[in-house]
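Lecture notes, unit on protein representations.

Consider one protein chain, 233 amino acids long.
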Amino acid sequence: MARKVPKLKDILPQLHMLTDLLSAEERELLEKHATVHTYKRNEALYDENETPAYLHCLVEGKVKISKEGVGGRAQIVRVISPVDFFGYRPAFAGERYASSASAFEAAVVVKIPIGTIMRLLLTNARLGLFFLERLAKDLGKADSRTVNLTQKHIRGRLAEALLFLRDSYGLEEDGCTLSIYLSREDLANLSNMTTANAIRTLSAFASEKLLAVDGRKIKIMDFSKLEKISRMG
C-alpha cells in the first residue's frame, strides 16, 4: 500500500529554523509553493547532471548524497538526517547537480522551488546568512572527510565511517547499535573501499570484539578502540 503523504501544515513546525526568519507575507509565499513528497528506500530524489529545480528539506528518514567515480563505482559524499536542507548548492552556483540523492530508508521531503527561494533571498538578508552558514559548515565537513578518505588506511576509514554514522544518525535505545541499517555496498561506498574490503574489515572488527554484526545491524562494543583506530588512520 502506498505511503500516505503528510500535509504541509503538519510538517511546517519542523521547518521553524527557516520559517522563523520569514515575515508573514514570506511564509505565505513559501507555503503556497512548497510541496511534500515521500520516497521509498533506495528511491532517487535527483540524479547527477540534472538541473536543480528545488531546495530539499528532509523531515523524516535518511538520505545519501553520492557521486559516481572511476569505473562507475559510487562514493557516498554526504548523509542527510532530519531536519536538514540539501540539493541547493548547484542552483546557487548556476550549475547542474554534481551528485545524486537517494533515500537510505523511507523518507519525507519538503521541496521548495528554487525560484521561490531566490525571490525570498532578494529581500531577506537573514535568510541569505542562514544558507551561507550552512554551506560553510558543509564545506568544513567535506574538507575533513576528504582527508580521512584519502589518507587513512582501510581500518581507519571503516572506523571513521562507523563513527560518522553514529554522529549523523545516533544510536538505538541500547546506546550501542547504529540507528541506520546499511548494506555492505553502502558501507563500502561511504568508506571509499571495495565491498569485499569492507566485508573483510568489518569481520576483523567483529573478531576483535570491537563490534557485533547482525545482518545490516551494527552494534559497537568498544567505542574508545574504534576512535583510536580512526585517529591513527
